[in-house]
Here is the input.
Amino acid sequence: MPRGPRKTDTRIVHAGRDPSVDAGGVNPPVQRASTVLIEKAEDLYRPGVWTYGLHGTATHRALKAALCELEEAEHCHVVASGLLACTIPIMALASPGSHILVSDNCYGPTRRFCDQTMSEWGCTTEYFSPDIGADIANLIRPETCVIFLESPGSLTFEISDTPAITAVARKAGIPTVMDNTWGAGHFHKPLDLGVDVSVQATSKYPGGSADLLGGSIVTRDEELSEKIRKLVINLGLAVSPDDAYLVLRGLRTMTTRMDRHQASGIAVAEWIARRPEVAQVLHPALPGDKYHDLWKRDFTGAAGLFAFALQAPANTTDVHAFLNALELFGLGFSWGGYESLAIPCDPQMRRTAGKPDFGGKLIRLSIGLESPEDLIADLEAGFAALAASIGARKA
Ligand SMILES: *Cc1c(COP(=O)(O)O)cnc(C)c1O
Here is the structure.
């Protein structure tokens, strides 16, 4: 029987193995290097020779090979945070006077980078509704340098019609970049949907343990890869080999963890959807969700991160009462680790391309690897505290 083509799970378990450096170990070495010794003087300045640790080590090479397998890419750059993975491609494609198109549901610090740093560099950022689809054509200007997507948004979980947007962008010759942190390459392959550059925070599901920061930038386009590579090198950006090792270690088990995050996330979301205190659940894998059909078409699964809106009487004090009553859900930013987390979303919502109404205060949950029954019991205590808080206010 012919072997292959192999599935993502299989490929990320075996990718990046190099017997010449692994010395028989299953895992690559953590190779720490600044200076690299070159055997012959003739090679010191020869192009293509590995001469300095800033340009990566055997550990980074193994990680990049695995990330390329994960997202079915040909080129990968690793950076020291997910935010850098978002900002570097924008910076690499923009020049003074450029027009940048960014989805209005993007990660807050990506927006801050465009509004503060890129604007100081003479660029204009215009935000568009994640629902824009092919109408993105109306926003394209001669000086548009990039279209930046995030699907789904990591606070409000809208899914864009990515193939419609990338078809327009390709026709106009404008590169597209997608923040793929939610789908993480396991449940979503943006490069197959016409996206030119897929980026993700490896701090989230690839790391999986809330103990590292990292970012991945992948593409199939050699010219785009070269632009990004130059900027990474010229800025002197480095990732420590220890962090590169941890991301790779996490990646080997990521698909299995994400399958569990998915199942528990859906179970908890369905339970929340039945609560009378809840106006709506924002989770694209739930059949009633506004984005369910797009999710079914373009994704093969769902991460454990979703949000829900409380019914209108709940105010900020009540939201805090709910969150403070939780024992298993930590209150903290980031997500994708083995532990469950909760945050209120409203303080960080910055929307300018429309004011979507979710019906009440938004709470975001990252469902970890605990038993979903225990998580539901914890949330039940949260809802009791919410009711007590609303009751005390009315009394
Ligand atoms: C966390 C996150 C980032 C940034 O990752 P860091 O490693 O924390 O800098 C980017 N995009 C999304 C959607 C994220 O959730």
Observations:
- The longest helix spans residues 372-394.
